[in-house]
Amino acid sequence: MNTTMKVKKNIAISENGFVFNPATGESFSANPIGLEILNQLRQGETSEAIIHSISNAYHAEPSAIERDLNDFIENMRQYHLFDHEDE
Hints:
Blueprint: E1 12-13, E2 18-21, E3 26-29, H1 32-42, H2 47-58, H3 62-78
């Protein structure tokens, strides 16, 4: 899995992990790792790079990070946080 997801530019993400989609009015909170993932996605990082970064930072197995990343990305899709070409 080595894809890049594009978070919509109008999505507001606070330093505390509060995420707001002004197009739908929906919001949710991300934990610190979720916030790190969102920030890396915003910077254009690939999923492979995110897995490597999180794995190194938290000394976790890359396979576990990949599963969690896939789940997180699916949740983001449900909140319509990606540009249309990635949904």
